[in-house]
Each structure stands twice: as structure tokens, then as C-alpha cells.
Automatic annotation (TrEMBL), chains A, C:
<dbReference type="InterPro" id="IPR009075">
    <property type="entry name" value="AcylCo_DH/oxidase_C"/>
</dbReference>
<dbReference type="InterPro" id="IPR009100">
    <property type="entry name" value="AcylCoA_DH/oxidase_NM_dom_sf"/>
</dbReference>
<dbReference type="InterPro" id="IPR046373">
    <property type="entry name" value="Acyl-CoA_Oxase/DH_mid-dom_sf"/>
</dbReference>
<feature type="domain" description="Acyl-CoA dehydrogenase/oxidase C-terminal">
    <location>
        <begin position="204"/>
        <end position="323"/>
    </location>
</feature>
<keyword id="KW-0274">FAD</keyword>
<keyword id="KW-0285">Flavoprotein</keyword>
<dbReference type="GO" id="GO:0016937">
    <property type="term" value="F:short-chain fatty acyl-CoA dehydrogenase activity"/>
</dbReference>
<comment type="similarity">
    <text>Belongs to the acyl-CoA dehydrogenase family.</text>
</comment>
<dbReference type="InterPro" id="IPR037069">
    <property type="entry name" value="AcylCoA_DH/ox_N_sf"/>
</dbReference>
TrEMBL record, chains B, D:
<dbReference type="InterPro" id="IPR006091">
    <property type="entry name" value="Acyl-CoA_Oxase/DH_mid-dom"/>
</dbReference>
<dbReference type="InterPro" id="IPR009100">
    <property type="entry name" value="AcylCoA_DH/oxidase_NM_dom_sf"/>
</dbReference>
<dbReference type="InterPro" id="IPR006089">
    <property type="entry name" value="Acyl-CoA_DH_CS"/>
</dbReference>
<keyword id="KW-0560">Oxidoreductase</keyword>
<protein>
    <submittedName>
        <fullName>Glutaryl-CoA dehydrogenase</fullName>
        <ecNumber>1.3.99.32</ecNumber>
    </submittedName>
</protein>
<dbReference type="InterPro" id="IPR013786">
    <property type="entry name" value="AcylCoA_DH/ox_N"/>
</dbReference>
<feature type="domain" description="Acyl-CoA oxidase/dehydrogenase middle">
    <location>
        <begin position="130"/>
        <end position="223"/>
    </location>
</feature>
<feature type="domain" description="Acyl-CoA dehydrogenase/oxidase N-terminal">
    <location>
        <begin position="16"/>
        <end position="124"/>
    </location>
</feature>
<dbReference type="InterPro" id="IPR052161">
    <property type="entry name" value="Mycobact_Acyl-CoA_DH"/>
</dbReference>
């Protein structure tokens, strides 16, 4: 924590608080991008958070971008702001130029992959990716791909010439399936991505992004529920006075705190640290696991009111139910952790845990 | 403790005859395109489908013939309900009228009202909603504030009701209103009315829910006039009438089969030769569904015997909705999908539908907390 | 339900109530058989429940034996009374003679099996079985075995000449591993067991026995907890008045009722009914699943008191924690159910369920 | 809401130095046969092992040097505790004295008492038990009835205490007794005493538990005399002294690592190449253990900073014991065994040990219900 960061986070929290309201969420439910809201984010420099100051950016590192991502989760910010910040960071990490506009990245499923074939000075990109966040809305996408020789690359493509099958998650955030068929890319749109040695995978960056959004949204859902429980009178007293309600929310608070700790620990880890992969897996697994008990308690406390479109709770809970599935659900990441631990072995388990910190 | 025993109950032969009749009806309706199997549930409003059910004699079968019924047993009726739900038939239009309003009218209404309304319900042409909850009352019915004031020839209703299913499409409401002081036990001074929604003085506002649909409504009554004839039961005895019959609402197959479509699609998703994890999960669900259904049938049997198994019904509902709530959480991990409403793949769509609706199942018809309180009292814990 | 059965159950309930007390449980914790208690059961005719009246038995059918088994579970009756009744029933089912004494049956794990080889007029029995209930204590054991041709047989063996490795479950009930090595058996000690066509397997009979014991013991644990909650005063009132305690026991009551329903339904099914196998699987799976929530609630309500040896709760809970594992835990039986359902197929699922009743 | 934030806290270099020192000690102790790794826990009483810990300077490291300590940080102490637990070392003899009694003595005791007792605790030669609960009080400490009456030069104690761990083997008890009226908030009139169990007037009765062991004891005081010097803190302020320091008891690694041996054996049981189900289960546990440990370290850091994170500690304990309670239930299905105490196979034995003990973990040190009440109050719900 430093002062500059605190100020930035405080300002951004206020900006989100001022601009993201029930109207914005309702508008976003159509699945389209709210351009005027986006303009506010651009104006505040958020969309260029990762870029060099020389390019009009804020030169933020991954930890700061993830702190903003958590705020975006807390406010259920409509639009691909975290995706845009992180796509910018990814491309800058491979010394790419400053990417402008609305950005996304992918693929988001382990099974999907893109192939690059050389074409004169440039490249051609082919392949499919399912359910890319804002894939059909973004101006450009940062994509992981492989050459025919198997070398890992990042490529920047514009989905204009793409076969797009639109879809959405439970919050109607666009999740579009893309097919690229020999899309020509200029030489400077493709760069080596040394993920096999040390770098993070796009799945990991995406999982970390969602873990932070989940942690932020869970905290908000808990706060809304506490407030509602104190306001709502039943049987002659606020329902917050009922032991069953108190215990339900106490348990939920435990899950919120655990999700938050797991996400923060991973966000604080350097991507080059050998424990980065394990921490990301723990973050997405633990945050995903928290979604159900917290949203259950929240809806139980809110009663019928929480199911109305008018009440804001569902704008958060529908996102939570979707985000936990995206970039790998908890089971996928638990398997990752389990395999690392199994390979480490029972007698090296405790040293691994203390080493992880 | 005796209050929480469930004796296994075999469905009688007549019920199994009825099952064949319903399956036959459903097969023909599906073949004729009158509904799309698996897609709908007890909250899907389809007046045309309900009319067909009425024509086939599948509504109000327990009622006297003089009111359009067939004087069949409660267990035969149970079979109709579960077959409709398992098929995913759109029974939402007549569901409330058949389950709650009809029986209340039969027991408590003015003879002329019975003669007028019951045959229409049984014919699948007359639909009801429930006007119990209010913006500030929720599960606490004793706090009802909508007021009925006696006037010449009837009552004037003023107040607001909320969470009425499909109020914009039904003909009548069962309305609970305050007609006097609550008294020391907080349960007095409430009266039930039948409210004709085609009459002036009531405004209906749809409430959009988180799935984007507007199944719930709010109603505002402004000097709405109800003739004396439409008072249901005795003035001031509404509370016991409402709470005394909750077993009918709480133990039904709708408390088990709401996510049946997801269960069926999960079986399809794991395939004919599931791995161990898939077989286990399916096996656990089936062990629970079969057992819950047996408990539900046991309660239906008690109802058929004229008993009032309120605590057993509360227990079945609590266990049933807990199971329904678990199901999508386990299903999402069994065969991972990113749930999407209206997805082409049935499993993905069913997962989305159940994920969005399941949290409401532990609230409708008495929250989990209310139900557990009823069970605890029966256990002798209060 | 008929009158005779009601009277028998009532009498047996009274007998267990009179004879099985904390002293009897404490004595049984040594793992040995309480011969004087056993003599009481013999005197009451319980040990010969399944035998022909001509042999001094009560000629009870499986459903009645299972009703007694449930009572035995309710009272956590020390000694292999259910095993003895059911072993007698099994041997009688293949027209064997009346077996006297303390009986057991096995094997209890799917992987274990015995082999029979012809030897003159008689047979020789070889094989191993792990953790046979009271295997080293019983006078004789009814064992399933196969001939070299694969024909299913039942055999009666006396474990006297057996290699026995003693063990126990969490309640210190003997669970002994047995090795038979060419044990000679007279011709009339071996009979064909048509399990492959229609008959129940010994695993099924054992699972049904344990499901009934679990259902009985769960009911008792619930009653003890309700009583304790009404008696125990904390913070100035009986803990039964706390909403958290009420709800915990309400949930437990749901599991008790479900376990009971599942076990009763299977016990009422004729062994020759094609749905017997599925009902047994459902019974053991559902009863096993109920053990954790009910014992958890019971121990939580009883607080530290429930962990003392002096209080009787643990004599039931330790048995419950053991019985759920024996003759297949819930996962094993869930797999059975799952495979039957998967084979039946999604579109035949509902007819299967209604057919099952 | 701010009260339930947990800031990630990295252990300082000194703590990692301490870790190496403890591992070294443990490796040598295991090699010399002074303990059998993995088998014991924080309730295993081994006076000889504790003396070795004391000799190695691993007890009371946060205390002043003048009292036998090393004036190290609370985080260094944390590392000692967790290393001992993870190794399954038999630290039960000095556990309570080091965790609760020593700090209380340091803050509240008469100087002569401090000088006499603390160095003995630090040397691993002096052990304590807790005398809070009574047969009729349980979690409700305000209802304590054991009475201390002022007499010449001290106090006479009469009454019964229960659930004291290893009372038959320890030297002293921290005893809470009634010295005056409770007052309107029910929390007054209680005083803490140090009770020397070698003196006459106290009878100790072991209580056998469900595992067959007698770890708990009951103590009966009959005109037992305590000199004034052995009063801990001010007369009448016992309640706040006891409850104010619960964070020390509730957030420690013992609330996470009690079943660590089972976790380790489960990893061994699934092997180096687990199937999907095995990998998932192990992965879920590890995600939870790592996160809980981070939260626990965060609380230790707050304690090191002189804060009183009572609600955070309650939350960590609730989450930790819930996890500990889940673990054996999942483990039994992951690698099915029939659990058996003292089985030769480590996994079977660990499963039995944890199955029998886990239900008590949600009761010790404040029941789940008490903890959730504390959390709810901090959330602003009361």
C-alpha cells in the first residue's frame, strides 16, 4: 500500500459509485456496451491504466490493475474494463504498442487454441475460441496462439472479420464464440510470449481477474445483506435480531474474508514468482467456492425482494454465478492444486505450505 | 415425536390408472404441439393448456361432481400433479386455483359462489392468485395491513398486496385483509375474500424478476368493493384458515420436482456409461428424490385420510427445497457448463434456469426459517 | 403391520430397554461378547427368529427380522443379534438346517471371495475376507462362495480352524479378517445360492441390515438431543429456546425421517422383486448420508458432555460412524444407483421412479 | 464492517529463522526417538518432550528475558506453534501454560508469582490447566458458581470445575471463581486465581472420553485455600480478563492444523498421480488450508501490533473448525476405509482419530454458536 495507490483507489471507488447505478446495470442487461459510461472511464484514464505514461497511460503494474479490478467487481461495473486494462498490460508485457479502445483477451478455455502461420512479413491467424468475454464487442483482442513449431505467441486481432456467435452469461455480459480463418496480421501484431518458461498463461490472468471481481462483489453483497437485515422488520423486529439470520451472515462473512484473502494473496504475487501459478489456482478455487454460501445467504435474507429486477442484489449475484464458471471453475483449479501437491508428495507438503506463505 | 413419523404409502390402483390417463393426455398434447416437454413448470402460465387439462377432466378431480369434480382421492390428484411437473407441462395458469383456492372455496364459500366458480376452475377457464403477502409483511402474515371496511352490502378494500404469481392474467385473488384487531395472539381480525380482478378499484403492476420475466405482481386496492357473498369463511377467522391448510401447499410434488428437468438432462449428460464421479452424483440425487417422493406421497396419504400433517409437510418442503437448492450446485461441477438462459443445449439452459430460480425455492411458500420453526415446535423444542 | 408383529416389536423394545444400558455398552467396549446378555436374547427367542417353529424358531420373514434389526439399532444392542438372525434366515432360504449359536455372515467387501473345491462327498473352502462382523467370535459363519465353475453357493463354516486377525470398528465391535485354507466342509454345509438369477447378495442383506440399524440409532440420537436441549440451561434458558439449536435439530429431524423412509421402503420390498437391489442401494446410501448431519447436530447440542464416556450418546454415534462404512458406504451404493439409472436412460428416468414407488 | 478485514501479512525474516531452528530441533528429537512424528497433537501430554522444548528455548519466546523468555515477536512464536503441530509433536503438557496462563501471569500476577512461575513454564517444567467451565455453565461463563470467600491472608474456594485438559498431570490451574454479585450486565463479581494443585482441598477426577482416553478432568474444591498473592489481576475483573484475551486462544494454528496428519496421509493415499476426483479433493483442502493459515497469520500480526482482533479470531476459528470438521467426512469418501483406532495403516488410524475428535473441535474454545454471535455483533447485526 502506498499513498498514490490509496488515492487512485479512492477516486475510482467514488467514480464507480457515482456512475454505476441501477439504471446503468439495467441498461447493461441488454448485452450492449454503454458508450457514455465507457467514455467516463476513458476520461478517468482507467482504460489506459496499464499503458506507458508516454502513451497517455497511468503506467500501473499488475497489482494495481488487480486492485482496480476488485473495485470493478465490487461495483459490478458494466463493460469490459478489467479485460481492457489487463489486455493492455499483457500486450505491454511483450513490448507491444499501446492498445487503444475496448479490449478483450482469450481464449478462455484450456481446450481452445489459435494457430499462427507465417505469411510474408506478417502472419495468418486461425482457430476458434468459445465464450470470449466481450469478444464480439471489443475493438481488438489479445490472443494467445502458437506457431506451427509450437512457439507460444501473443497476437492482437480485430474481431471485425471474424465469425462471431453471440452469447451471454447469466448477467447478460457478452460471451462470444469466435472463429478466425486465416486472418492476416501485420508483423508487429504478433510477439513471442514466453509463457512456457515463466510467464503467466492467459487463463491464469483471467482467473485472477475473476477472483478479484468475485472478492469485490461478495463483499458488496454481504454489506447489502447486513443493511437489509437491519432495515427489514418481520414479526415485530428487524430480522437482524434473529439468531438464524445472524449466523447465516456470520458464516457468509467467513467466506467473504477467505475469498478476499485468497484473491489478495495471489494479486500480490509477482507473475515471475514460481508460486504464482499455485496462488492463482488457490484464489480462483477459494473465491469460486465462496460464491454459493454468500449468495445463498444474501438471497435468503432478502427474501422475495432480492428476486425482483428492481432490487440491485441480482446484478451482483448473477455476475457472481457467472464469474465463478469463467476462466475455469473451482474444480478445474482444485485439480491443478491437487496435482501440484501430489507431485510434491506427502512428506514435502508442509514445507510447500510454509514456503507459499 | 410421533408427529414426525412417515409411514410408507403405496399408491392405490386407481392412482396408477390415473397415471396412465395423464401420460396418455400428455403424450397426445406433446404430439399435437400443445406444449414442449421439459420446458415449463408450475409457474408457466398457458391458459390454452389449462383449458385442455380441464376438458380432459384433470383439474379438481377430488371435488364433488356437482362442482365439476370426479370425487376422486387425494392420491389420484397427487399423481396428476407429479406427472404434469415431471413432463414439464405448463400448468401455471390453473395451479393455484386447483391447489389452494378451489379447496378453500369448497369448504368456506357461499353456495352461490361455489356453484359459479368451482366448475369454471375445473374446466380450466378460471384462474386464481394469492393475495397474502404485503410489502412490509413477507412471511409474517399476522402483520397484514390491507384493510377491509364494512359498507352497505359488502366491504371496501384498501391496501397493497405483493408477490402474487401471474396476477395480471388470473381472474380472481384469494385476499387476506384486516377486518378487526389482531388481539393478544396476533392472529385475530383477519378475513379472507375472493376478489374479482375484472372489477374497478384494483391496479395490477407487474414486477420483473431477475430472470427478466414478470411472473410476480403487486396489486393496489383503492376503495375496491367486495360483495358480502365473496367473503370466504367467517369474518375474523382468516388466519387459521390460511395457516391450517398449508400442508396442501407445502408437501406437494412441486417441492421436489421443480428442477426435475435438470436432473433428467444431467442423466443424459453423463451418458450411459458414467465414470465413478458421475455415477455417484446421479446416484445420490436419485436416492434423495426417490425418498423425498415417498415422504411426499406419505403426506398426501395422511391428507387423504383427513389428517392435518402440517409439521410433516413443513419437513418435506424443507428437505425438498434444500435438495432442489443443492442440485444445480452439484450439477454445475458434474458436467461443467457456463449456464446461459435460452441456450440451445438443453443441459446448459436447464442449469441457467435452475441456478437463477433455485434460491427462490427456499423462500416461496414459507421461508426455510419458518418451516424449521414449525418442525422444531413439533419436536417439542419451543 | 399386523397385531402379532406389533406385540413382538413392543416386547422386544421393552426387553432391549430393560437389558441394554450404559453398563452393557461399556462392557461391550472391550470387544468381547456379553454371554449373559446373549442368553437373555436366546431366552426371548430372538437368536432363532428366522428358524422354523419346528426347530424352536419364530418363523419370521425378512421384513419382521429387519424390524427387529431396527430396534437393535435403536438400542445399540451389543453383540451380533442382527447378524445372527439374518445368517439364520439366509441358510434357511437355501433349505439349510437350523443354525444355532452366535452367527455371522460374509464376505462384506465386494473384492473378497471364497472358493469351494469338491472333496469326495464334501468340499474344501479357501479364501480371505476382511473385517467380517464378529467373524472371530461367531460359532459359525454363513459365507458366500463360488465353485471353480463359478456357481454361487452358500457355505456354513466354523471359524475355529481359521487364521483370524482381530480388529474392531470405532465402537469396538469385532471386525475380524479371516483366512480359510482348504477347510473341509461336509456336503450338507454347502448349498447352491441362486443369487445370479434373482436372489439377494450377502452385501445387499448386510447393507439393508446396517441401513435399518442406522435408521433406528438416528431416531434415538435425535430423541436424546431433543431431551438434552430441553434440559440443558445456558444463558438463563434451556438451549432448546435458541433458534440456532431449534433449526439444527429440525434439519436433523429431516435426515432422520428420510433415512427411516428409505430403510423402511427397502425392508418392505420382497427380495425377489426386481426393484429390491435398487431399494437396498437407496436405503444404505440415504441412511449413510444422514449420519453426519444428525450426529453433528447431536454432538453440537450435547456440547462437551456428549464426548464423555459417561454419557451414552457416543455409544450410538460411534456405531453410526462405523455402520455407515460397513457393507459398502454411501458412495459405493450411489454408484450402483447411478449406473442403473444411466443404463435406464434420461427419457426412461421418470417411469423408473414412479415404477419404483 | 472494517472489523472483519484481514490484511495479508508476510512473516518476517526472524520468523523464518525461527522456523529453521524449530525444524532442526524436531528433526533431532525425532531421530533420537523423543517423539513419533505425526502421531500427537496439542492435547498429547509428554512432560519429557516439553522439558526438551524448554531447554531448546522454544517456550514463552515472547516473554522478557528476566522471566525466561527471548523477547521475540508474536509472529516468531506463531511459527514455533505451527511447526510443532504440523510435525505432530506432543506439546500438550506446556500448550496451555504457554498460550494462555503465561501471558495472563505476565500481565496480571503479583511480581513474586511471576518471578517464581514464568521461568519454570519457559523451562518446560511447569504446566497449567484451565478451570473456567462448570458442570452447569458450559459456554456461559457469567453463570460460574464456584465461590471464593475472603479469609485471613487469602481466599477459600468451594465448588466444581470441569473439562480441564490433563488436570491430573498439570501443576496449576487458572481458576475463575465468583467473589461478588454479577451485577446488571451479568459480568461482574468474577475473579481469577492461580491454584496450586499440589495443595490440599482439591480432588481431581478424570473423565474418560469417547475415544477411551481420559484427557479431561473434573476438580472439586472443598475449602481450598489460595493465598492473596495468587489472585490474578483485580478482584471482580475476571470476566473481562478472560474474554478479552480469547483472540489468543481462537486464532492460533491449532484451529487449522489439528487434522493435518490426516491431510498429509490423504495426500499419500491418493499417490503421485491422483485421478480427477482425488486431485480435486486434495486441491480444495489445500486452497482452504493455505487461505486459513494466511488469515490466522494475519490475526497473529494484529496481535503482534498490540490490537485485539477478537471478531477476526472468532471468524478464523469458526471457519477453521468447520474445515476441520469437513475434512474427515470428505476423506472417508476419497479413499474409503473403515476407520479403526490404532490401526497399523496410518491413514486408517488418522481417519479414526479425526472422526472421533472432529465433532469436539466445534465446541472447544467457544462453541460455533458463540463464535457466530461474536462475528454477527461485529458485522453490526445485534
Amino acid at each position: 500500500m502506498n499513498d498514490m495507490r490509496d488515492i487512485l483507489l479512492e477516486q475510482t471507488d467514488r467514480l464507480f459509485g457515482d456512475t454505476v447505478d441501477a439504471d446503468a446495470w439495467t441498461a447493461a442487461d441488454s448485452g450492449s456496451l454503454d458508450r457514455s459510461l465507457w467514455a467516463r472511464f476513458e476520461e478517468a484514464g482507467l482504460t489506459r491504466a496499464a499503458l506507458d505514461e508516454a502513451d497517455g497511460g497511468s503506467d500501473l503494474g499488475l497489482a494495481d490493475i488487480l486492485a482496480l479490478t476488485r473495485l470493478a467487481g465490487r461495483h459490478a461495473v458494466p463493460g469490459p474494463l478489467p479485460e481492457t486494462m489487463l489486455a493492455g498490460w499483457l500486450w505491454r508485457r511483450v513490448d507491444g504498442d499501446a492498445l487503444a479502445g475496448v479490449l478483450g483477451f482469450g481464449p478462455v478455455r484450456p481446450a481452445d487454441c489459435f494457430t499462427l502461420t507465417p505469411d510474408g512479413q506478417g502472419w495468418r491467424l486461425s482457430g476458434e475460441a468459445a465464450r470470449v468475454p466481450w469478444g464480439g464487442v471489443a475493438d481488438r483482442l489479445v490472443l494467445s496462439a502458437r506457431t506451427l513449431e509450437g512457439e507460444a505467441m501473443l497476437a492482437v486481432a480485430e474481431p471485425v472479420e471474424t465469425a462471431i456467435t453471440g452469447g451471454g452469461n447469466l448477467a447478460n455480459e457478452p460471451r462470444d464464440s469466435l472463429v478466425f480463418d486465416d486472418l492476416p496480421l501485420a508483423a508487429d501484431r504478433v510477439r513471442p510470449w514466453p509463457e512456457s518458461d515463466r510467464g503467466p498463461t492467459l487463463m491464469q490472468i483471467g482467473a485472477l481477474m475473476r477472483a478479484q471481481q468475485i472478492a469485490g462483489a461478495l463483499q458488496r453483497v454481504l454489506e447489502m445483506s447486513i443493511e437489509y437485515a437491519n432495515d427489514r422488520v418481520q414479526f415485530g423486529r428487524p430480522i437482524a435480531k434473529f439468531q438464524a439470520v445472524q449466523h447465516m451472515l456470520a458464516v457468509a462473512a467467513g467466506h467473504v474474508a477467505a475469498a478476499s484473502m485468497a484473491a489478495e494473496a495471489a494479486a500480490a504475487r509477482d507473475v515471475d514468482d514460481p508460486h504464482f501459478a499455485l496462488d492463482v489456482a488457490i484464489a480462483k478455487a477459494r473465491a469460486g467456492e465462496a460464491v454459493r454460501p454468500v449468495t445463498d445467504a444474501a438471497h435468503q435474507v432478502h427474501g422475495a425482494m432480492g428476486f425482483t429486477h428492481e432490487h440491485s442484489l441480482h446484478f451482483l449475484t448473477r455476475r457472481l454465478w457467472s464469474w465463478r464458471e469463467e476462466f475455469g471453475n473451482e474444480r478445474l483449479w482444485q485439480r491443478e492444486i491437487g496435482r501440484v501437491v501430489a507431485t510434491t508428495g506427502a512428506d514435502r507438503l508442509w514445507p510447500l505450505l510454509t514456503d507459499l506463505g | 415425536m410421533n408427529g414426525l413419523q412417515f409411514t410408507p404409502r403405496a399408491l392405490p390402483g386407481a392412482a396408477e390408472d390415473m397415471r396412465r390417463r395423464v401420460r396418455d393426455f400428455l403424450a397426445r398434447a406433446a404430439a399435437a404441439g400443445h406444449y414442449r416437454p421439459g420446458e415449463a413448470s408450475w409457474n408457466s402460465f398457458d391458459a390454452g393448456f389449462s383449458r385442455r387439462c380441464g376438458e380432459a377432466g384433470l383439474i379438481g378431480v377430488t371435488w364433488p361432481r356437482s362442482y365439476g369434480g370426479e370425487e376422486r382421492s387425494y392420491l389420484e390428484r397427487y399423481v396428476i400433479m407429479e406427472e404434469m411437473l415431471a413432463a414439464g407441462a405448463p400448468v401455471g395458469a390453473h395451479w393455484i386455483a386447483e391447489r389452494q383456492s378451489g379447496p378453500q372455496i369448497l369448504t368456506h364459500a357461499h353456495p352461490a359462489v361455489k356453484a359459479r366458480i368451482l366448475p369454471e376452475i375445473a374446466a380450466g377457464r378460471c384462474f386464481f392468485g394469492i393475495g397474502m403477502s404485503e410489502p412490509d409483511s413477507g412471511s409474517d402474515l399476522a402483520s397484514v395491513r390491507t384493510r377491509a371496511t364494512q359498507v352497505d352490502g359488502g366491504w371496501k378494500i384498501n391496501g397493497r398486496k405483493i408477490w402474487t404469481t401471474n396476477a395480471g392474467q388470473v381472474n380472481y385473488l384469494n385476499l387476506l385483509a384486516r377486518t378487526g384487531d389482531a388481539g393478544p395472539n396476533r392472529h385475530g381480525g383477519l378475513t379472507q375474500f375472493i376478489v374479482d380482478l375484472s372489477k374497478p378499484g384494483v391496479e395490477i403492476r407487474p414486477i420483473r424478476d431477475l430472470t427478466g420475466r414478470a411472473e410476480f405482481c403487486e396489486e393496489v386496492f383503492d376503495d375496491y368493493f367486495v360483495p358480502d357473498e365473496m367473503v370466504l369463511g367467517k369474518v375474523g377467522e382468516g388466519w387459521s384458515m390460511v395457516t391450517g391448510e398449508l400442508a396442501y401447499e407445502r408437501s406437494g410434488p412441486d417441492r421436489i420436482l421443480s428442477p426435475f428437468n435438470l436432473l433428467r438432462e444431467a442423466v443424459r449428460a453423463v451418458g450411459e456409461e458414467p465414470d465413478d464421479a458421475g455415477a455417484e452424483e446421479i446416484g445420490r440425487w436419485i436416492a434423495n428424490v426417490v425418498t423425498l417422493r415417498r415422504m411426499s406421497v406419505s403426506v398426501a396419504g395422511m391428507l387423504a385420510d383427513g389428517k392435518a400433517p402440517n409439521a410433516q409437510a413443513a419437513l418435506v418442503k424443507d428437505l425438498g427445497t434444500t435438495f432442489e437448492r443443492e442440485l444445480p450446485e452439484q450439477a454445475r461441477l458434474l458436467a461443467p457448463r457456463e449456464p446461459e438462459q435460452n441456450a440451445a443445449e438443453p443441459y446448459t439452459a436447464a442449469l441457467a434456469q435452475v441456478t437463477l430460480n433455485a434460491p427462490s425455492w427456499t423462500i416461496r411458500g414459507g421461508t426455510r426459517e419458518i418451516l424449521r420453526g414449525i418442525i422444531a415446535r413439533e419436536l417439542g423444542l419451543r
